[in-house]
Automatic annotation (TrEMBL):
Residues 5-58 form the HTH lacI-type domain. The keyword DNA-binding applies. This is Transcriptional regulator, LacI family. It comes from the Bacteria. PANTHER family: HTH-TYPE TRANSCRIPTIONAL REGULATOR GALS, LACI-RELATED TRANSCRIPTIONAL REPRESSOR. Residues 371-382 have a biased composition (Basic and acidic residues). Residues 331-382 are annotated as: Disordered.
Length: 382
């Protein structure tokens, strides 16, 4: 009977050392190119005894991927700063993918998990399509999604509630006496864009303010598009007295346009953003912003993925990170000290039943939920 392939024949076919083959089959840290060569050679040679099949199945790369829309976005950088040390402490390296918010690119990343180039994936999609959901469900390695996902998708999930966050900001602007509150949003076909558009309408209704389409402009989640959208809004509604921006990069673009137009912030127009990136605090004037816990979401996602790698059979978990309002000079002026919402320098909310604002910089996440497909944030959120 012809003897089957051995690690020696695999090493010859792959063009690597026997030691390298042994490391790959035993799941020890190895260069990714070597892993691919060895596994391809083993498959070509039909190396399929049960013991070997088990070795191939359990082979680990000690790498984890993080796929995001734009590697230059400060929100994702804040996440990376938390994800990397958590993974490093557990013996994993972090591989970054910038997808350009292209669903097709994200699907390709998910499908490539079958090549075993990483042991797991953290994914933060902006657009959640049926095709993407199918790819997540069919992924051949553990996946954690940051952001809202459809009910019933059995995947570990970390999310926030940007609807409530936007409501906090509009309540704050209303308490300051602002009544012509414009809204500069990102694309409506994205999860955060759709959620924040609905939240803006709902908040206006709750405050007794009419919805005026002239006060709403759509751009994209970056500074240049935020500036262009703000210019269009000001041309239509020069009497606007506040701008709610769907993220801080849009808000920074809005500050530039207002300064160029001779509109003082916040005396003429108050400006608020979302995400609480470092640039918001460093801007002039410093931007009031809704923190969506970027750092905490990243850390939670990394911990969920490590838990899944240790126990692949446990029920999916959902963690939600609550938003909080960080008040700065762009709404209350330079004379009032920037502070969290509990500071007495910040005007208190006057509308009965307004949602309570939390004052901690890094709040604790809502306890993990273990029911599969449980809808933690029923209103969504990006």
């Amino acid at each position: 009977m012809r003897e089957g392939p051995t690690i020696t024949t695999i090493a010859k076919r792959a063009g690597v050392s026997i030691a390298s083959v042994s490391r790959v089959l035993n799941g020890l840290p190895t260069r990714q190119e070597t892993v691919r060569k060895v596994m391809a050679a083993a498959e070509e040679l039909g190396y399929v005894p049960n013991s070997v099949a088990r070795s191939l199945k359990s082979a680990r790369t000690n790498q984890v991927a993080f796929a995001m829309a734009d590697i230059g976005n400060p929100v994702y950088l804040a996440m990376v700063r938390e994800i990397q040390p958590v993974l490093k402490a557990a013996g994993y390296r972090l591989v970054l993918h910038s997808t350009g918010a292209d669903v097709g690119e994200e699907i390709e990343v998910l499908r490539s998990l079958g090549e075993r180039y990483v042991d797991g994936l953290i994914l933060i999609p902006l657009r959640v399509t049926d095709e993407l959901v199918e790819a997540i469900a069919a992924a051949r390695a553990p996946v954690v999604v940051i952001g809202s996902v459809p009910d019933g998708l059995r995947v570990d999930n970390v999310r926030t509630d940007s609807r409530t966050g936007l409501r906090l900001a509009l309540d704050h602007l209303y308490a300051l006496g602002r009544r012509r509150i414009g809204f500069v949003n990102g694309p409506l076909d994205t999860v955060p864009g759709a959620a924040r558009a609905g939240a803006y309408r709902d908040a206006l209704a709750a405050l007794g303010l009419p919805y005026d389409p002239d006060l709403v402009e759509i751009g994209d989640f970056n500074r240049a598009e935020g500036a262009a959208a703000t210019s269009r809004l000001l041309a239509r509604a020069p009497d606007v007295d506040a701008l709610m921006c769907a993220n801080d990069l849009i808000a920074l673009g809005a500050l530039h346009v207002l300064r160029r137009a001779g509109r003082r912030v916040p005396q003429h127009v108050a400006v608020a953003g979302m995400d609480d990136i470092d640039l918001a605090a460093d801007a002039w004037p410093a931007v009031t912003s809704v923190s969506l816990g970027s750092a905490e979401r990243g850390r939670a996602a990394a911990e969920l993925l490590l838990d899944r790698l240790r126990d692949g059979d446990r029920e999916p978990r959902i963690i939600t990170v609550p938003p909080r309002l960080v008040v700065r000079a762009s709404t209350v002026g330079e004379d009032a000290a920037p502070s969290g919402p509990a500071d007495p320098a910040v005007p208190e909310q006057t509308r009965p039943g307004a949602p309570e604002r939390t004052g901690t910089r890094f709040p604790r996440a809502v306890p993990e939920r273990t029911a599969p497909g449980e809808d933690v944030v029923r209103e969504g959120g990006g």
